Write a sequence for this structure.
């Protein structure tokens, strides 16, 4: 029974890690790594409010993240303040509020994840939504990348960069919600960013960059979950440390093989 449960959790982890890696690949290219990391902290007050109202904390996290995604999208288009400054003003405040109002018994799980809380129904839902995230991200990938390369060119051929950016941010919100059980609100940003950064170290083309980002996300999740079970530690730090190990390995490999 334990093995079946672990295999199911690993299956869910494969899809979450893959979705996080693919979504993160665009975030790294858009130079939104700091924004993406802090963005995940917004989930905590959403979870806290849901817990206080005796509702599903994942639903609370998703609502908070969607609101934050729309907020980022709106202020990027209408404000002269850089996104990094907005992060410093709003999202760290959200983290502080979340820590204050989250029930103490739930705080560590919310911050660092707890794979034991994943139910079969939740796991199936996470897998299904991860597939949706991957498909939608693939569909908009060319338009999204064109907007990164040249906003003027994208606009000239009829691509609405604002619309694509909003869809992307909503995908980020969904992905973060899916991964909270595994790595928690404090570390989910790392699962989104680090696999893509690792892939960028050694990829030779855009296609290989996407594939390696997904692969490293999957490896980070699967290896991290196994380490968490093996050593009886929180899954979040285990997954993130695995990601960091992959990043350092690819960084050294790049220096060695390219003679940098």
């Amino acid at each position: 029974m334990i093995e079946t449960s672990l295999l199911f959790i690993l299956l869910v982890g494969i899809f979450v890690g893959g979705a996080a890696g693919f979504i993160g690949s665009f975030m790294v290219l858009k130079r939104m790594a700091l924004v993406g990391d802090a963005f995940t902290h917004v989930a905590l007050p959403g979870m806290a409010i849901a817990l206080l109202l005796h509702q599903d904390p994942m639903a609370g996290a998703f609502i908070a993240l969607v609101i934050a995604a729309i907020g980022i999208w709106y202020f990027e288009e209408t404000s002269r303040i850089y996104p990094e400054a907005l992060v410093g003003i709003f999202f760290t405040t959200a983290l502080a509020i979340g820590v204050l109002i989250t029930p103490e018994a739930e705080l560590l799980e919310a911050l660092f994840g707890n794979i034991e809380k994943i139910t079969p129904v939740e796991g199936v839902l996470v897998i299904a939504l991860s597939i949706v995230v991957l498909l939608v991200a693939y569909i908009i990938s060319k338009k999204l990348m064109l907007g990164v390369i040249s906003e003027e060119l994208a606009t000239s051929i009829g691509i609405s960069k604002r619309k694509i950016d909003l869809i992307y941010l909503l995908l980020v919100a969904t992905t973060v919600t899916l991964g909270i059980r595994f790595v928690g609100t404090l570390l989910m940003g790392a699962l989104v960013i680090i696999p893509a950064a690792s892939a960028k170290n050694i990829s030779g083309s855009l296609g290989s960059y996407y594939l390696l980002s997904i692969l490293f996300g999957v490896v980070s999740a699967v290896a991290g979950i196994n380490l968490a079970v093996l050593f009886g530690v929180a899954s979040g730090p285990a997954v993130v440390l695995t990601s960091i190990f992959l990043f350092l390995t690819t960084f050294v490999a790049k220096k060695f093989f390219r003679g940098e």
